[in-house]
Amino acid sequence: MRSRRLTRQRNARLTAVSVAAAATCAALLTGCALTGPGPGGSGPVATSSPTPTPSTSTPATTPTPTVKPTSTGSTASTSPTPTADSRKAVYLGGNYSNGVFSVGVIPYGGSTNPALTGTFLIHEGSTLIGQVNVAYDPTDGYYGGHFNLTLAPGRHTFTYDYSGDASYQPAHDTGKIDVTNVTITASVPGGTVVWGQPITVDIQVSPIPGVTGIPTGKVTNDSSFAFDTAEATLDATGHATLTVPPSPYLTSGTTRQDNYPIYINYAGDDTFTPWRVMVLFTFLPAPTS
């Protein structure tokens, strides 16, 4: 009897514990099941994990990617505007005669106040052939300088460079100087021409001794009141015959015999220099009708 009473009491206590545990489980968890007591029973066991409470923190903001502009081509950098040179501009010149090379610096407008200074360089090709300190030359009446130089016969091209100074701008220029390398032999056959008739001039252009080659190009004559201008081309030997017509302005003839000059010009070519000679002949009076 006493044993059954103890068993009922134990069961009642376990039932009360189970009811309390069920209430607690309902308040905290869902899906919670109870395992009743049995021989060796162990009380309430959770059969699933509790649903986690969602976080209330604000998620991190994803940065918006920066879109680079599409290149439409290179843009030239802006260079500073150069300051205008307020110094006076000049032009340059050179001359060669009798083994002396002369150079000059002449301001535009002609005024040389203040006086010019600076350095003048002369090159032929890449070779520096002369350098002078610019100064006033009372003999020539200009600013420049001189130096001795022996140039071979032929055509020469030089570059001139003036350094400039505090009052005058730098300058660069080129110049050509010819040292004669040809000779011209010319004559009027028979030496006489009847007034009002064409003039025939026999011309031979030859290199001077020590120079090789054959001149090419054209020969002409200067016109006058008595005859017009003509032109002829040198042949493979440097020879030409120039036939000069009478002047279209000629209206009357001479009544007496006159000695008369005609000037023959050789134009030169890439190797040989221009040259000029005078030919004398005699005009005869035109026949009278």
TrEMBL record:
Signal peptide: 1-35
Alphabetically ordered keywords of this record: Signal
Biased composition (Low complexity): 44-84
Signal in keyword set: yes
Segments of this protein annotated with the region Disordered: 39-86
Name the UniProt record assigns to this protein: Uncharacterized protein
Source species taxonomy: Bacteria, Bacillati, Actinomycetota, Actinomycetes, Frankiales
